[in-house]
């Protein structure tokens, strides 16, 4: 019985294999220190960052998109770690977080708008 | 809008509100005339006074405040902000008495672009006066800390763009509260400007009428939306000894008035697009109104001083 199912399994593999022959073998998950491992997005909409708090792995690139009719900025609280120009409607800003830590940021045009990126 | 939105004769010899707190909101679509007497504001529905009272208020000095032109904005709330600015200018030029000067209380442009500043400056050349005083809004200082703004519109200013001047016995002070804003905070004047202000008014007689103008309101209109200035109380403390202080702001794209002691606060309409009443929307973004209603929510503010009577009248009028 065990023998039979193994044969069937090989047969099924052969059929599937024939249609996916060009597909590369699945690779291992990237190591945690990979610098280009992922992406996350934050929308700026209705005078707020959404989501306001994002948890990411080190090396992740976060992209903000302004969906409002008015310009906004994305500026780290220390005003140096990252700082976008004024983003008009639909304009984007990206920053890659390579070091773990919690990064608080705000819109320097409307400072009541705040957000945070938690880098693991 | 119903007339009940206006305070018609609220401070007429009743002896109650005079010492207290008056908050009068003149919402879009109409206007209000406000008369300041020794720090006390009288406010009338414009419809009540248009014929007989306006003439009484023409005094030694009249000037006009415009605000929030947002040149460069082209979204649904107003696809042609240059056209509505031109209409505001035509309205100013049609006033029975030409104003001594015009104050622009900031957000000349939407994105601080050179071409936007060009359009603003070109448009204002049509004014019957060439004396225009500016303070920046946050939209004028977006990417260069206001350098271009100061080069073009604040060449005589100090620091981030503050200055003062005297006109017919009244002292005018332009303040900047849109720079170096901190996360989670409101508008900011900063210690250097506050020090300057204290010195600027030190030598003035207490009887001098003082007019302060700045972009973001110098009173807490609605802090949840950033409609206030963190250190405005300190600024106002330097003005406590003066009998008549008028504070003119923009930023909130609607008219609102308040009296607190010797200080009358007033915010002006935008010439570009309206914003919602405090807390009446999920955010303070541009408010979309039907095209045929737009001009009723944009406008100018005409201010008249009658020095001998120590009075000041403020008239808001819409572009409709």
Task: Break the fold down into its secondary structure elements and pairings.
The complex is a heterodimer of chains A (120) and B (320).
Chain A: H1 2-19, E1 38-45, E2 48-50, E3 53-56, E4 60-66, E5 75-76, E6 92-97, E7 101-106, E8 114-119
Chain B: E1 21-24, E2 32-37, E3 40-45, H1 46-49, H2 53-56, E4 61-66, H3 81-93, E5 101-104, H4 114-124, E6 132-134, H5 147-153, E7 163-167, E8 170-174, H6 191-202, E9 210-214, H7 232-237, E10 245-249, E11 256-260, E12 263-267, E13 299-306, E14 311-318
Parallel strand pairs in B: 4-5, 5-6, 8-9, 9-10, 10-12
Antiparallel strand pairs in B: 1-11, 2-3, 2-14, 4-13, 7-8, 11-12, 13-14
Keywords:
A: 120 residues; alpha/beta; Immunoglobulin-like; 1 helix; 8 strands; disordered N terminus; B: 320 residues; Purple Acid Phosphatase, chain A, domain 2; seven-stranded mixed β-sheet; 7 helices
Question: Explain this structure to me?
Answer:
Chain A is α/β, with parallel strands linked by helices. Chain A has a single domain (28-119), classed as Immunoglobulin-like. Chain A is built from 1 helix and 8 strands; from the N terminus they run αββββββββ. Chain A has a 4-stranded mixed β-sheet, with no helix packed on it. In chain A, a hairpin with a 7-residue loop joins strand 7 (101-106) and strand 8 (114-119). Chain A starts with a helix and ends with a strand. Residues 1-35 of chain A have low confidence and may be disordered. With 320 residues, chain B is an alpha/beta fold. Chain B is globular, with a radius of gyration of 18 Å. The model of chain B is unreliable at 1-53 (pLDDT under 50). Chain B has a single domain, classed as 4-Layer Sandwich (Purple Acid Phosphatase, chain A, domain 2), CATH 3.60.21.10. Chain B has a 7-stranded mixed β-sheet with strand order 1-11-12-10-9-8-7, with no helix packed on it. Chain B has a 7-stranded mixed β-sheet with strand order 3-2-14-13-4-5-6. Chain B contains 7 helices and 14 strands. Classes of the chains: A alpha/beta (120), B alpha/beta (320). At the A-B interface, strand 7 of A face loops of B.
């Amino acid at each position: 019985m065990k023998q039979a199912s193994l044969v069937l399994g090989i047969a099924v593999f052969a059929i599937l294999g024939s249609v996916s022959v060009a597909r590369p073998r699945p690779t291992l998950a990237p190591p945690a220190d990979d610098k280009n491992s992922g992406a996350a997005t934050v929308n700026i909409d209705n005078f707020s960052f959404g989501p306001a708090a994002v948890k990411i792995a080190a090396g992740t690139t976060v992209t903000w998109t302004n969906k409002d009719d008015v310009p906004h900025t994305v500026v780290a609280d220390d005003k140096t770690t990252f700082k976008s120009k004024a983003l008009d409607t639909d304009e984007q800003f990206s920053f890659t977080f390579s070091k773990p830590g919690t990064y608080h940021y705000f819109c320097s045009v409307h400072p009541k708008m705040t957000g945070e990126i938690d880098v693991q | 809008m119903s007339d009940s939105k206006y305070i018609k004769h609220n401070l007429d010899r009743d002896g109650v509100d005079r010492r207290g707190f008056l908050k009068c909101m003149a919402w879009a679509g109409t206007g209000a005339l406000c008369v300041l007497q020794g720090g006390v504001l009288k406010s009338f529905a414009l419809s009540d006074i248009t014929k007989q009272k306006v003439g009484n208020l023409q005094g030694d000095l009249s000037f006009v405040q415009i605000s929030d032109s947002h040149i460069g904005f082209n979204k649904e709330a107003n696809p042609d902000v240059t056209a509505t600015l031109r209409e505001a200018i035509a309205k100013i030029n049609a006033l029975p008495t030409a104003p001594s000067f015009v104050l622009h209380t900031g957000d000349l442009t939407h994105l601080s672009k050179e071409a936007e500043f060009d359009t603003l400056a070109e448009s204002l050349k049509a004014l019957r006066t060439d004396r225009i005083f500016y303070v920046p809004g946050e939209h004028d200082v977006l990417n260069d800390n206001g350098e271009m703004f100061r080069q073009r519109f604040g060449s005589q200013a100090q620091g981030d763009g503050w200055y003062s001047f005297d006109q017919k016995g009244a002292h005018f002070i332009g303040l900047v509260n849109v720079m170096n804003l901190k996360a989670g905070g409101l508008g900011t004047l900063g210690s250097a400007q506050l020090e300057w202000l204290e010195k600027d008014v030190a030598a003035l007689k207490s009887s001098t009428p003082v007019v302060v103008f700045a972009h973001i309101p110098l009173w807490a209109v609605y802090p949840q939306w950033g409609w206030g200035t963190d250190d405005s109380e300190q600024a106002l403390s330097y003005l406590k000894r003066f009998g008549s202080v008028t504070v003119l702001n923009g930023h909130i794209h609607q008219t609102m008035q308040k009296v607190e002691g010797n200080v009358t606060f007033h915010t002006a309409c935008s010439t570009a697009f309206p914003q919602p009443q405090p807390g009446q929307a999920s955010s303070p973004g541009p408010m979309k109104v039907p095209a045929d209603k737009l001009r009723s929510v944009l406008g100018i503010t005409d201010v008249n001083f009658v020095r001998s009577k120590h009075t000041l009248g403020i008239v808001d009028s819409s572009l409709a």
